[in-house]
Design goal:
Number of strands of chain A: 30
Low-confidence stretches of chain A: none
Radius of gyration of chain A: 26 Å
Mean pLDDT of chain A: 95
Strand content of chain A: 15-25%
Largest sheet of chain A: 13 strands, antiparallel
Shape of chain A: globular
Oligomer: homodimer
Largest interface: A-B, 53 and 53 residues
CATH architecture of one domain in chain A: Distorted Sandwich
Amino acid sequence: MSEIAPAEPWIVREVGAPVEEDGELLQGESIFALANGHVGLRGNLEEPHLGGMPGTFLNSLFEERDLQYPEEGYGFPERTQTIVNGPNGKRISLAVDGESFDLRTGEVRRHERVLDLRAGTLTREVEWVSPSGVALWLRTERLVSFVRPSVAAMRYSVRAEAELRIESDLVVDEELPSPREDDPRASAIFQDPFEPVSHDDDQLVCRTRRSNISVAAAVTHTGAEGTISSSPELIRWTTTGRGEITFEKFLAYHWPASDQAVTDRDVAARDGFDTLAAEQREYLDDFWAGADVEVDGDPDIQQAVRFGLFHVLQAGAQAGPHPIPAKGLTGNGYDGHTLWDTETYVLRMLTYTHPGCVGPALKWRHSTLGHARDRARELGLQGAAFPWRTISGPECSGYWPAGTAALHVNADIADAVLRYHAATGDDEFMREAGHELLTETANLWKSVAYTDDEGVAHIAGVTGPDEYTALMDDNIYTNLMAQQNLAAVGVELPLSLPYSERRRVHEQAAGFTRLPEWTFTDHDYPLMLSHHYLNLYRKQVVKQADLVLAMMTRSDAFTPDEKRRNFEYYEARTVRDSSLSAPIQAVLAAELGHLQLAHDYLAEAALLDLRGGGESGGDGLHIAACAGAWIALVMGFGGLRDHDGELSFGPRLPPGLQRLAFHLHWRGASLCVTVKRDSVTYTSDGEVTFRHEGKEVRVRAGEELTFAIDPVDDIPAPPSPRPPRRHTVSS
Amino acid sequence: MSEIAPAEPWIVREVGAPVEEDGELLQGESIFALANGHVGLRGNLEEPHLGGMPGTFLNSLFEERDLQYPEEGYGFPERTQTIVNGPNGKRISLAVDGESFDLRTGEVRRHERVLDLRAGTLTREVEWVSPSGVALWLRTERLVSFVRPSVAAMRYSVRAEAELRIESDLVVDEELPSPREDDPRASAIFQDPFEPVSHDDDQLVCRTRRSNISVAAAVTHTGAEGTISSSPELIRWTTTGRGEITFEKFLAYHWPASDQAVTDRDVAARDGFDTLAAEQREYLDDFWAGADVEVDGDPDIQQAVRFGLFHVLQAGAQAGPHPIPAKGLTGNGYDGHTLWDTETYVLRMLTYTHPGCVGPALKWRHSTLGHARDRARELGLQGAAFPWRTISGPECSGYWPAGTAALHVNADIADAVLRYHAATGDDEFMREAGHELLTETANLWKSVAYTDDEGVAHIAGVTGPDEYTALMDDNIYTNLMAQQNLAAVGVELPLSLPYSERRRVHEQAAGFTRLPEWTFTDHDYPLMLSHHYLNLYRKQVVKQADLVLAMMTRSDAFTPDEKRRNFEYYEARTVRDSSLSAPIQAVLAAELGHLQLAHDYLAEAALLDLRGGGESGGDGLHIAACAGAWIALVMGFGGLRDHDGELSFGPRLPPGLQRLAFHLHWRGASLCVTVKRDSVTYTSDGEVTFRHEGKEVRVRAGEELTFAIDPVDDIPAPPSPRPPRRHTVSS
């Protein structure tokens, strides 16, 4: 049994040996995954055969498979893409006096894993006694280099008064467990995706069978003598000794395959693990200096927001020409697909915390414009229709009413472009990709929107963020985001925003407030696993923030009174069956003065994977929820809003927090916002103009601008069918 | 090359040898299919290996297969049912002087097939010269007995100055061609559905592998001496001779398997082919006496409506405890499934032409109530939710927005119950099944309908008959039919009927008239094969009569002026990509005085399979369109309406017809309506009360009631994107 230890500010610590039975092994593999956006190593234990889900994820290394439909339809994707488990260099077997090191046997005296968020390393320490009584001490260290995209490295030290035998592998097509077939959200798993191309003692070259992507995986060991054997699917380095063995292992991956893998490996091996670790820390020091969020008064949240920042960085840092998947490179959930989460959650955070990787992420979208244009034609539309799910660009979504019909993804991409440009002033990006993304998504909306007999413009028959409501007219989120998208290319088109005069609230989509109410007797969430879409779609039941999201992203489009009434109305109908929901609800709750509720939603988002009990993140972390913790803090309690390319703040702390400080990149400067119970202080290393509580202010380098915050009473949460767990601050 | 000869009143004649290349072989197999609702023999030629699609369909003999979804959803059917090709007793091989009789070789001097609609037989005559010059004369006759549900019989006569060798087979699991994979409407085909159970010289017993339905197929031959061999999958009777051979062949099927197959076969063989043929004619004489439709002035329509009546009878006569599939027993289209067509089209016609088989058909629905109740629960509803597609009761539809969401099927079933009871007074049926069907479907609507803030009742998020519009609120057809369903159990619930004040038309569903218009530049019908549902659903484009159907079935709910404006509006937006559409458009066109248009729509429906050019009916006839020809004539030009359990007529002939006469069963009497250009005459063999042009009248046995018809000018057709082909009367 293992558990995540009480929160430490910069450390995530697991104590005890993870065992496979209750999901903690899988969850730990996700939590302790290391990645740099290009290469990802799931937190698998070194020794094989302890269950779990092996994962070496090379961004966009996917295989294709055909999709089967009971009833075909025109434009239904014929095939999909699924991320595959690449050549695994993490596997190291150990035997002491002929007995395999295996946590399920013998006695585990100590087992600890530490993810160091400043060092960017995963360290494991084990004290174990073999069944025949040999005491063993083991320490492993691992990193995936932020600085050298192709490189991962390990250091392995073992000590025992016994004969030691170590087999350190690079293995292709290792056996994987079967997928869970009962859950529609489960991913396909390819058991045998590669065919061998070549092998020697330095590298294995293999190729995916159908998508035809070649991979070169190079490996070497230093610090101990060993013998090497190689076969098409395995390079094995074997060393033996007595007493103590320490060695370092260096991996480098290139896909498509190139000799650069061996070169990168050689350079890394020459420099050594300590050098790589020093570079790693330097990179992270720089990151944290401009991105850290300090939370005084709530150690769990403090740890969780840094954990989230770290994992979002790991997902995006070197994603480079490839996309940022919904699970980063921490698991094969969602088949490794990228969804709208990336632009709406992940890039929102990265724009202010690590803008250098946002341009490449949006350029990846731009690189898929050909697919998006083709798809638009296929849908009878103009411009670009980006996919709901994809790895390399084509639509991979197999259920179109809650996929392809969610055209808002196109406005979300445009929104991310506008935000990135406003925050960085990166005009070159705009020339290369940004303007065309804005133009082509705007062209989509021009062809989707139409004007009715009364001269009112509409968007009919699309699906908004809420996946429990589909194919409706005038989804407000979609309309407002499309309107912004169009405005960015100079087209002013006021689209209909449905409003119920009787209920005095906006309608998520036309007619929504007239639908039958859901009967909330059921606590068997998520509802989609026990209720037919026909039932869900016909009712006023909301999977995730939709209109509430619109009130955050287009805060300017609603009066405070409208926001209050809308929030209350939709709180009573939202079940949060998506991890995308809580962060947004936190933001609006904070804005409307429901400060404890905001704190609770923040905690739900922030602690989902880290302290979720091993349930949800086994197939990869919820990267958008990781970004969501930041969103809840910075946009919720920091009150950051950024529509129209302007920064504004309206900070206010919940009862449980003493202080919140966060850093934002803004046009080359680093702005630090420190919120206390009664004041907020802005400092910067360059000139930044923004609004504080609606009033334009400017802070110059070295200046310190402080404003008082009026104390307010927390407003109790409005009724909800599924209120968040009350978050209590651990002492 | 073969073609259907010019129309004859009671005969469908094909001249020339059908060849496989251009679909005429498949089409002919459907046209010349014989069935009694229980057993169906596709019109395959006797000799094997000439392509085509072998078909021996035993009602509800199906196999199951799993359905695969790219993204699973709760309540998506896990498996479906597909009709299989049963043991084939039609196959007879012939060799003359050692050369196989094969139409693709030698010389075909004469080839003719005749379907006799009064005799209920299919006769084939061939004069053929073998490659080596032997002249051969062949005549085969075939029937599937209306009187003996399990029995089919053949008579085979051949003459040639040569050595003749005949192998007459009963074969299980013969090889079938591959399905067309490019069309979403294509069916699955099981290549090898049976496992053998037992065999002897009298019968083969086999069983479907997964659905586990056993079949006993018995065969015998009389009139010539032969030798029999049998194996698990084949009974072969071989006879040889010189000059002339004539024999009769008798088949009987029971499933689940029972010894009754051999008994039925023995009785049939003892009685002989001529006796069976005499019984057949007697049965049909009786049918035609009460069901015939005479059309003077249009031989093609005259032939076609009788062809339609005959095939609907063949689909329904002995369907008995099983359903009536959309293709009858003429092909494997739609996997052999039953859809709403049965109640809305087929039973509508049969209620007035052959009511004896309507009670059993509705009792079949009743027998599936368990499935329908379970399905309702699964959908979060009460009462019964009957499946969109099924063979034995469970939902088999794999695309729910245009399947399960079309809840109107439940009101259609209730409508058929009400019609049948009104027409027959069959109270025992109501006690056994009818009342419960009405109650349980009404319970469904009670749980679906809801009342909004303004006190208006609605049905949200369902799909009406038009499959190019889905998941809308307040589909008028659904609402009006549900309202009638509820009224039948004493619940008066006025449901919202959306109306556009600006366009002065009813909306097919709420908001429909505000949707973007379709751009009709495309003539690549059906649109669904080249346009995504997302595109179709968002536009004002209608696959098939929907609101127009409501104006027929609930004629009482619209004023004449509303009907006129509605018809014009929807004519401009309806593409008739379903064969269910034209008959209904014919009815409303006739009512509104577009008499030539009505005639054109009638012709489209009536001639679809018979003279459709071998395109559409290869996988089975459109049985609903067969009934549709009757509907277009009797409800269109006869003006029959029957809501509220009352018969009414408003007859009016189109320019091209001189006289229309039809018979209707009504509460034990046979009412004959004879429409001429200037008058209508009602006669009956019993007392019948009805309305003529709105006025209640009564005709007694032997009376002749004649009314003048005011001459009217044909009103030109309103604009349509896809007008029907102008029908010209052949001389």
